[in-house]
Amino acid sequence: MTSSSSLPPSDSSLAPTTPDAQGVGPVAPDEPAEEAAGGDDARMSFLEHLSELRTRLRNAALVFLAAAIVSFVVVKHYFEFLTRPARAAWKIALNGQDPVFVFLSPTEPFWVYTKLSLIGALLVSSPFIFWELWKFVAPGLYKKEKSAVLMITLATAGCFIAGAVFGYLVLCTPALSYMFSFAESFPNAPIKFRIDPTISMDEMVGFMLAILLGTGVAFELPVILSVLGWMGLITAKGLWKFDKYALVLSTVVGGILTPGPDILSQVLMAGPLFALYNISILVVWIIERGRKRRDDEEEQAREAEYAQEAAARKAAAAKARDPQDGPG
Question: Does 11 score more than 80 pLDDT?
Fold first, then answer.
């Protein structure tokens, strides 16, 4: 009767194990470091997740509230800055006449200033709000997922800011100059009359915000097309074939966003849109090239693995034949 110590070790004992950092149990050496490192977050209970989310939202709300209070104190500077292109267009279209904005109800200035305060507070506090949400979400993501989320978020914010700045500095004044030019007098009419602009504070702020929002969203074109290309829904070749139609669409959109009769303002809008479309083609092509390189590397790795397995089987078969070929 053989003792238990002479029995061959089981398969599970052949695999070396290493204790994890907290001494909870063994971790296989080939386990991804990200999964092993994320064990603490995976062991958090549902109530602990809710508590952390409540803390993050509370911090974000406090920062937003503080930013709103400060914004309401300086909101008149917000109004002056936001309407600056409109006032410049007013002077251009009405031969140097000082701009006049009216309010149509006693409460209109208060609500306009409140809206601007909240929007300004959101813009000022948005980096901290995103940081708080990121600290809550990031522990549950892998390294590649974190990089992808950060890249898309930064690209989205950057393109939106670039579009809003473009609309503020380039688009608003020419467009409003043309619209304000409809104000004129008719001295030769049988009964003389004038057409004067009477624009309320709320209408002016709403128009400026709509222009900035529209140009900011339009500049998101490279991000949208890049994400679609990364998902494999579109290709650089297909986008390139559509390039001539994109030129026409860019011209149409430029004419809509810049209703002035001059060609220069339309070109100033259509040109960047068409350039953004071609930049999107380049980005999608780079994404496709990187994906093809990774696929080729994976294919080569699989072929090498298959060749290694075939060589191992061949060696094992040759070794099995050696005792039969030896002296009998």
Answer: no
In degrees and rounded to multiples of 5, residue 196 shows phi and psi of -115, 145
What percent of the chain is helix, strand and coil (3-state, nearest 5)? 75, 5, 20
**26 three-state secondary structure:** strand
**pTM score, whole prediction:** 0.72
The answer to whether 59 touches 147, Cβ cutoff 8 Å, is no
Q: Are 27 and 17 in contact (CB under 8 A)?
A: yes
Name the token pair of 176.
């409003």
Q: In degrees rounded to 5, what are phi and psi of residue 16?
A: -70, 140
Closest CA to 208 of 117, 78, 76, 82: 82
Across residues 188-207, what is the average pLDDT? 90
CA distance 206 to 116: 10
Check the CA dihedral 236-299-231-146 and report its sign: negative
Lookup: tokens for 307: 């060749």
DSSP string, 22-70: TSSSEE-TTS-HHHHHTHHHHT--HHHHHHHHHHHHHHHHHHHHHHHHH
Q: Mean pLDDT throughout 247-254? A: 84
Instruction: Please give the Cα distance from 80 to 87 (Å, whole number).
Output: 9
160-164, 266-270, 302-306 — most confident range? 160-164
Pseudo-torsion of CA 226, 211, 274, 162, nearest 10°? Answer: -60
CB 89 within 8 A of CB 177: yes
Report residue 145 CA to chain centroid gap: 14
Q: DSSP states of 200-213 as a string? A: EHHHHHHHHHHHHH
pLDDT band with cut points at 50, 70 and 90 for residue 49: confident
* Whole-number Cα distances in Å, 259 to 251, 270, 317: 12, 12, 81
Of 116, 223, 106, 109, nearest to 163 (Cα)? 223
Structure tokens at 67: 């930013």
Residue 151 phi, psi (nearest 5): -65, -45
Cα 328 from Cα 191, distance rounded (Å): 130
Q: Which of 119, 212, 225, 117 is nearest to 160 (CA)?
A: 212
